[in-house]
Amino acid sequence: MTVTLLTESVVQALVCPADRQHWAVLDTLFCGLYVDVQRSGRMAYRLRYRARGRTRYLTLGDARIMTLEEARTEAREALRKVRVGMDPRAVLLPGAGPTIEAFFTEYYLPYVQTYKRSWKTDETLLRLHVLTCFGPRGMGELNGADIARLVGAMQTRGYAPATINRVLAILGYGYRLALRWKIQGISDNPVRYIRCLKEDNRIERYLNQKQISRLLISVRQSDNPCLADIVSFLLYTGARKSEVLNARWQDIDWTHQHWRIPHTKAGRIRHVPLSTGALTLLAQRQVTYPSQDNWIFTNPATGKPFVTVYYSWRKARKQAGLPDLRLHDLRHSFASFLVNAGRSLYEVQILLGHANARTTSRYAHLSPERLREAVDVIPSLQ
């Protein structure tokens, strides 16, 4: 962030530094007014102000089109509205409803925060893609062609189909809420005219016994004293990385031999049965670290759970000759082991905590040996 006296010549000469995505240049003459310079070359006048006890931002317009004097005039008018208790972002445009930025920051995000655990992801995707493209425009102005251009722009920048579809889902849900709430100026959902992109997100990576052996040797040599147990527990339980890193001793039921996960991706409490190997690992940790009565895998440097084990994991997987292996692939391997051992997809679904059987079906990778056994049941035709 840089502070300087803005002039037309200064604004038009601004270029975002190569090591940044955004660069904010504040005006010394008008408090709160700044130019948001993006690496892509886009520039926008924005206003930072306080309303209802929070810092808020208002996009005034494209700095390549709007003059500096026009930006200062609009900023001055916006602050007048703030002084009388109005939020300038929520002002309705003639016949076009609230601006995209006003609706999604004033209505959508506060609403989804009440129930959606991934609302921060929504906020990030909206800020990076939707607000930078449509922020100052009215909700009622957009049509299917506008949304199609957004999709095309994201494809050009190399975003994955899954990311683009997530943006479309958030934008479409916002319009459905606006229609449900009867927001003035909104009469249609332009996202419904756009087809989602085809996603090929099938997970193909899973470990065989030889690869597991190499991986376990490698993680046991790691400088991170907990990495080997974390990796082993992931393989024993098929749990998600975040669930294992935040596991607590109080959630281990030794009597019934299961692990209670209080905070899952689906937002429901889940109980994971513990195998003999998992119970042995936990018992050994209790003996080795008797003073750790809170988190199971405590970071010795902080006394709290690991935020990440990425760097030690990256080193270990390279040493094992598995440079592209993700921690989530251990969950996939767990499911594949069960399927190859003859367990049903329903059992795998319950153990992984999937609400939808279609999600579990991606993990049904049968080994070539089991496939050969399957075809051998066909009788000889000679």
TrEMBL record:
Signal peptide: none annotated. Pfam families: Arm-DNA-bind_3 (PF13356), Phage_integrase (PF00589). Coiled coil: none annotated. The keyword DNA-binding applies. Keywords: DNA integration, DNA recombination, DNA-binding. Gene3D superfamilies: 1.10.150.130, Integrase, DNA-binding domain, Intergrase catalytic core. Residues 202-376 form the Tyr recombinase domain. InterPro entries: DNA_brk_join_enz (IPR011010), Integrase-like_cat_sf (IPR013762), Integrase_catalytic (IPR002104), Integrase_DNA-bd_sf (IPR038488), Integrase_DNA_bind_dom (IPR025166), Integrase_recombinase_N (IPR010998), Phage_Integrase (IPR050808). The keyword Hydrolase does not apply. PROSITE patterns: TYR_RECOMBINASE. Belongs to the 'phage' integrase family. This is Tyr recombinase domain-containing protein. It comes from Halomonas cibimaris. The lineage of its organism: Bacteria, Pseudomonadati, Pseudomonadota, Gammaproteobacteria, Oceanospirillales.
